[in-house]
Amino acid sequence: MKRVTVLALVGLLVLAACGPGPATSTEVPTAVPSPAPRRVRVMTHDSFDISEKTLAAFEAQYDAEVEILQAGDAGTALNQAILSADNPLADVLYGVDNTLLSRALEAGIFDAYASPLLAEIPDHLALDDQHRALPVDYGDVCLNYDKGWFADQGLAPPANLEDLVAPDYRGLTVVENPATSSPGLAFLLATVGRFGQAGDYTYLDYWTDLRDNDVLVVEGWEDAYWGQFTYGSGGEGERPIVVSYASSPPVEVHFAGAPLEEAPTAAVVGDGSCFRQIEFVGVLKGAQNRDLAEAWIDFMLGQTFQEDIPLHMFMFPANQNAALPDVFAKFAAIPERPADVPYADIEANREAWIEAWTEVVLR
């Protein structure tokens, strides 16, 4: 629209120069600058990624600019939003997940917004019934295994969490430290949900057995997957079972150097074996451009953005009408019954669970 306005102004000047008027006039009309486009600021974690084409679609539709403010991991980004609540750094915060949701809601940093696109998102993903935090995507943290390694050894791959403590699986598993790793924390939560905190066999009993079966603990996902996992390390690692994501097998196919007929890895998706991370977006209180913030959230929940998520952030779209890319549709296994740990319980017990885990596994 601005480009058309400028061209029209030039045409009028040419016509005026050709028409009658004082020949000696040297007066030049003062050009009126086009107004700068409005801007919506979106604070995210560092893993945010979306295509330029998708961002351009929003900017063209709303004649606005999108400024992405990456602020560290999800916990760091949330802390920055809380500390700057009186003078918000952005209009929107994306990336708070269900391990952090209770903290965000209790801090009161979000304004409620009931997007009409919520009608296209399953109820089990929409954890906040006041619509302060709206679900954008989800991903399941699960055990992954190297299919080729198990075939070569003539050993059945694990089907559930319980298999890992059997003698045949001694020394085969690498996990991440829940105190330093998001997937590590998610896997700890899966064990809490699967085995509970009371009774004859608790999550700490399970971790005791896992420790005695020579589980390897590393600081983060990169070291676990690319350093210790037999497939991810190209054969340099010694552990054919790793804590990763249900989306990892299709990602391996997508980035393979040559076309693959099947994924070289698989996720363990038996009942209670995975923890589902759900990521949310919300309008920050005090947002400078509230209307654009709401428009951006509608856009994130709409099909254009949702269908861009799997191959950029390797998560699953929350919108049930969004089509999965072929590689996800063919090779991804989505757990039907992930472990259930309410987000309020996570906030109340997170640090105690990590400390108890540390005492059992590392000390």
- The helix content is 25-40%
Q: What's the pLDDT, averaged over the residues?
A: 88
The structural class is: alpha/beta
Count of discrete structural domains? 2
The residue ranges in which pLDDT falls below 50 over 5 or more consecutive positions are 1-26
Order of helices and strands: HEHEHEHEEHEHHEHEHEEHHHEHH
What is the CATH superfamily label of the largest domain? Periplasmic binding protein-like II
Radius of gyration: 26 Å
| CATH fold-type name of the largest domain | D-Maltodextrin-Binding Protein, domain 2
Number of distinct helices: 14
Shape annotation: globular
Gap from first CA to last CA: 65 Å
General description of the model:
The chain is α/β, with parallel strands linked by helices and 363 residues long. The protein has two domains: 38-138 and 278-331, D-Maltodextrin-Binding Protein, domain 2; 140-275 and 335-361, Periplasmic binding protein-like II (D-Maltodextrin-Binding Protein, domain 2, 3-Layer(aba) Sandwich). It is built from 14 helices and eleven strands. It has helices spanning 2-18, 52-62, 74-83, 101-107, 147-153, 182-195, 203-212, 221-228, 248-254, 290-301, 303-306, 310-313, 326-331, 343-361; strands at residues 38-44, 64-70, 92-97, 110-111, 134-146, 173-176, 216-218, 241-245, 265-267, 275-284, 316-317. Strands 1, 2, 3, 4, 5, 6, 7, 8, 9, 10 and 11 form an eleven-stranded mixed β-sheet that branches. The longest helix has 19 residues, at 343-361.
